[in-house]
Amino acid sequence: MVNVAILGFGVVGSGVAEVLTGNGAGISKKADELISLKYVLDVRDFPDSPFAACFVKDFSVIEQDPEVNVVVETIGGVGAALDFTERALKAGKSVVTSNKELVATHGRRLLELAAEHQAVYLFEASVGGGIPILRPLSECMAANDILEICGILNGTANYIFTRMVQDGIPFAQALKGAQANGYAEQNPAADVEGQDTCRKLCILSSIAFGWHLLPEQVPTTGITSITLADEAYADACQRRIKLLGRAIAREDGTVCAYVEPHFISLQNPLAGVDDVFNAILVKGDATGDVMFYGRGAGKLPTASAVVADVIAAARQLERASYRPWQPNRPSSVVSSDQLASQWYVRLAEGTCSGERLTISGGKEGESGWITPAMTRPQLDQMLEGKQVLAVIRVLD
Amino acid sequence: MVNVAILGFGVVGSGVAEVLTGNGAGISKKADELISLKYVLDVRDFPDSPFAACFVKDFSVIEQDPEVNVVVETIGGVGAALDFTERALKAGKSVVTSNKELVATHGRRLLELAAEHQAVYLFEASVGGGIPILRPLSECMAANDILEICGILNGTANYIFTRMVQDGIPFAQALKGAQANGYAEQNPAADVEGQDTCRKLCILSSIAFGWHLLPEQVPTTGITSITLADEAYADACQRRIKLLGRAIAREDGTVCAYVEPHFISLQNPLAGVDDVFNAILVKGDATGDVMFYGRGAGKLPTASAVVADVIAAARQLERASYRPWQPNRPSSVVSSDQLASQWYVRLAEGTCSGERLTISGGKEGESGWITPAMTRPQLDQMLEGKQVLAVIRVLD
């Protein structure tokens, strides 16, 4: 018998309760044991919830109940979530989470703590919502050296781009639409400024390369400055604008990781990933390119990924864990300034070396360009003194 | 210490030996134990192979060596491969394979045999080559009821379609090119007549639904009759021809499974899967559509999937297994004749109800049509007495 406690009864937490109990029989069969929801921790009251009997307000009830084997942390953030996760692991309980901020920031120590206490710490739902990615990367691709990870990791940003292109509406309006549809938070900063993508990239990179990459080491540019003119120029050169998180393993053992919008060519399988869908491209030295695609967020997709981890924890408590992450290696992180690529450049006036793009209805004097391959410092030198309106990296 | 024996030193077997030894240090670290290649079984001699010291010709050497924990079966077929797999499992050794014919035909019994002898039987490489699919489907999507599996599962067939469309060459010539490039066997029947897709679909379906679907229960149509005219009509209606294996769970608990070429719309994420790439779309009741994409065949991709299973077997011998498959359920398999859809029809002359397609350079009198949605028996009735040149199911 496996008893589960859910911390936080928000969107994901309530989804986990529903999936755990709604599909209960099937889930228990798959777990080879009976899985039962024992507690839900929340400061608020939910007198009408079907789980009303499970609610508690004091974490120590869960911490001190030896019958609780698996704790689901869906509080979010790095405050109470960190405290409760540490205490649960120290009490020998396994913890499953969708909290990307906590994993990206404290994952290494929490994995270590889990191992010390014969528990597991699992977080498949923290990247890509319901898309299976962390376990496939960690287990199924274990015979590969991972060469690169490149992903559309934020559904809100991708939805905004899709609306801009398909409906011809500017960024601000597309963002409002995303909020109205429930795809973006009222405070959308983490989505549109790239931090959400950055955290997910750190988790992927740490699993792929085996040492903890920290968010503050990843230069991150969001999408707030992208205009309809940029989308028109992208269209003019058969490309799409996508916000990508990339982590590239270099031959010297260093990793170049960054988050930026990109012009990507229509031949790239990521170009066709629209709306709130996410996709993660993984290059292995043996398998070549493998891509994982699906809804990157949403109550039920995310909850089902959490519950799959609960089942894994229930089936094989000591063996389901990710391999431990080695400590962060400051000297192994290299700047994306060293990564040469072509660039899209939009100028207020004047010219630039490279291929000139033409669009209909462009602003008087403005021009769009695709430069030859060079690094960002070389580009900045070339553009010195020019009135630069936009610079976006090109990826074929 | 985990000692591995490889059965069959063909393309995949020699690739496994390379991946196991070439990336050896990394692999042993991931397995938390030292993994070592002890034997290679082959009837042929390979005096110049770097693994020459490992070769044996008599399986009983492997069977009787208690140091061998994991046997890799890459012989293929259901003759010696079945015999050796049974004997290895009965000796308590775990078996890892890429042999889709053996798994599709005897998977249930071999999983049972493995469980009886505290061994595991793993076959990630049997579907999708290096694409992680069976473990994600079995574990990461465990909290879902699977509603449908729909996949481009044969790289050779997909390569042929891509060449027909992109180079404008007929089927026979595209097949010859595939053979010249090593993408098709000299006897390409299993690829172009659909059996290979059928076997992979049976494995996916058995894992998704939990009972053994057998190849002889799956109506299978290959691609040998597809012409350039059909490709032109597909293009005329914004669709692509792809050979799909589909298994659809119906509300009454039955499964409709079949293999056929389809006209699929360009909006379908499978439409952009070209060349030798494979992709598998899985619909879960909670996650929605999830897609797995990558190279479906090839020496190193397949070998790396085999080696990942060897690592899984080494890490967690008793827990890495797939859940057992229930016996086949003849009454749970329903004919694709019950599945209504639109149809593409090409007639030698005359007309048909539906939307007429126009192509340039079509044959005098011939016409292409997209019919309203109906079942195949209804379609056949409608077409009675007409000179029908082609019928292909439409999937949007």
Automatic annotation (TrEMBL), chains A, B:
NCBIfam families: PRK06349.1 (NF004976). GO terms for biological process: methionine biosynthetic process; threonine biosynthetic process. Residues 8-124 form the Aspartate/homoserine dehydrogenase NAD-binding domain. It comes from Evtepia gabavorous. Keywords: Amino-acid biosynthesis, Methionine biosynthesis, NADP, Oxidoreductase, Sodium, Threonine biosynthesis. Residues 132-311 form the Homoserine dehydrogenase catalytic domain. It is an enzyme of class 1 (oxidoreductase). The active site is at K200 (proton donor). This is Homoserine dehydrogenase. It catalyses: L-homoserine + NADP(+) = L-aspartate 4-semialdehyde + NADPH + H(+). Its EC number is 1.1.1.3. Pathway: Amino-acid biosynthesis; L-methionine biosynthesis via de novo pathway; L-homoserine from L-aspartate: step 3/3; Amino-acid biosynthesis; L-threonine biosynthesis; L-threonine from L-aspartate: step 3/5. L-homoserine binds at E185. One of its GO terms (molecular function) is NADP binding. NADP(+) binds at L7, G8, F9, G10, V11, V12, G13, S14. Transmembrane segments: none annotated.
